[in-house]
Specification:
The protein has seven helices and two strands; from the N terminus they run ααααββααα.
Length: 151
C-alpha cells in the first residue's frame, strides 16, 4: 500500500526528473547554438542519428508515436535538412531514414554541450551529492526501461 510519505517522494522524484530534463534540453540547445525542434522531432532525430537506416515504422514503434505523426515529422525534418529518406536496398518499396551531416553535427554539439553543462553543475555540488548522482545512473536506467513498457 502506498503511504503518504512514499507518495510525496514519488511526486518529488517525478517533478525533479521533469525539471532536470527540461532545463538540460533548453540549456543544451542554447549552449550548442542549434535550432530548437519540437520535442517529437528532436526525439526522431536522436533516434535516426543513433540508428541510421531505421524505418519509419521502427521509429513509430520505438518512440511510441502514431505513424502519421512520424511521417509528418520526417517531412518537416527533411525540409530542415536533418534527415533523408532513401529506398531500402533489400526492398525498394520500403523506406529507410538517414541522418544528414547537419543532424550528426548538431547531435554531437548537443551531446558535448549537455556534458559540459552537467560537469559545470556537478562541480558546484558537494562531493557526496556528485557521487550519489553518478551512482544512481544504473537505477535511473532501470527506471527508464521499466517505464518504457508503459509508454
Amino acid at each position: 500500500m502506498e503511504t503518504m510519505e512514499n507518495s510525496s517522494g514519488l511526486h518529488a522524484l517525478g517533478a525533479v526528473l521533469r525539471d532536470l530534463n527540461r532545463d538540460l534540453l533548453r540549456a543544451g540547445r542554447r549552449a550548442a547554438a542549434v535550432e530548437p525542434l519540437p520535442e517529437s522531432e528532436a526525439d526522431i532525430v536522436r533516434l535516426v542519428v543513433r540508428e541510421p537506416g531505421v524505418s519509419p515504422g521502427q521509429i513509430a514503434a520505438e518512440l511510441r508515436m502514431k505513424p502519421s505523426n512520424v511521417s509528418a515529422g520526417l517531412r518537416r525534418l527533411a525540409e530542415a535538412g536533418l534527415v533523408e529518406r532513401v529506398s531500402d536496398p533489400a526492398d525498394r518499396r520500403a523506406a529507410r531514414v538517414l541522418p544528414t551531416p547537419l543532424a550528426v553535427r548538431n547531435a554531437l554539439l548537443l551531446e558535448r554541450a549537455r556534458a559540459g553543462l552537467l560537469e559545470e553543475a556537478l562541480d558546484t555540488l558537494p562531493a557526496a551529492h556528485r557521487d550519489a548522482l553518478l551512482r544512481a545512473i544504473p537505477a535511473l536506467r532501470a527506471l527508464d526501461t521499466a517505464l518504457r513498457d508503459r509508454v
